[in-house]
Amino acid sequence: MNYDELLTVIGEFGRYQMLIYALVCIASMISSIITFSQVFTIANVDHWCAVGEWSDQIDDCLPASGDNYLDCIHNYRDASIPSKGEIYDKCQRFNVSYQDTWSLGYFAGEFTNTTETCVDGWVYDHSQYRSTVVTEFSSRL
């Protein structure tokens, strides 16, 4: 018995096969949407150490948009995070007693060369993504 004869015995492509094919297609579409959504939900955004004394002021940057937002958070980062040229440390900050309010032109590196690990958590650049899995879970650590 060859393949063509076998198909005539068991039946050809009918309603049952169409139903199974449609269900498999729907399941694979849903699976692919979930898989590719990770591109957006698990994005790794730029981050650096937070300064607890300035947390209220960094929250004030969020309502700003575009370049105003970037200027606000980058001024904050420039004041408290050591850098090598354009590359800022993501896990260290200057080890100083920070003033309660942050002012433009303040630079903690003027007072010390020593650094410490992130004791107050991290600040995230929300210019591209407001919230990602990375920012949500690491803020709860």
Describe the model.
This protein is of the alpha+beta class and 141 residues long. It has 2 domains: 3-41; 47-138, no CATH class. It has helices at 3-10, 15-41, 55-59, 66-80, 133-138; strands at 47-49, 83-84, 87-88, 92-94, 115-117, 122-124. The strands form 3 sheets. Strands 1-6 form a two-stranded antiparallel sheet. Strands 2-3 form a two-stranded antiparallel ribbon. Strand 2 and strand 3 form a beta hairpin. The protein is rod-shaped and about 90 Å long.
A few lines on this structure:
This is Putative organic cation transporter protein-like. By secondary structure, the protein is an alpha+beta fold.
Described by the principal axes of the CA atoms, the overall outline is rod-shaped
Radius of gyration: 27 Å
The beta-strand count equals 6
Biggest sheet strand order reads 1-6
Number of helices: 5
Order of helices and strands: HHEHHEEEEEH
The total number of structural domains is 2
Q: Considering DSSP H and I runs of 4 or more, what fraction of the residues is helical? A: 40-55%
Largest β-sheet summary = 2 strands, antiparallel
How far apart, in Å, are the first and last alpha carbons? 66 Å
Organism: Stichopus japonicus
Keywords: Membrane, Transmembrane, Transmembrane helix
Protein name: Putative organic cation transporter protein-like
Chart the SSEs and their pairings.
Blueprint lengths: L2 H8 L4 H27 L5 E3 L5 H5 L6 H15 L2 E2 L2 E2 L3 E3 L20 E3 L4 E3 L8 H6 L3
Antiparallel strand pairs: 1-6, 2-3, 4-5
Features:
single chain, 141 residues, two-stranded antiparallel sheet, 6 strands
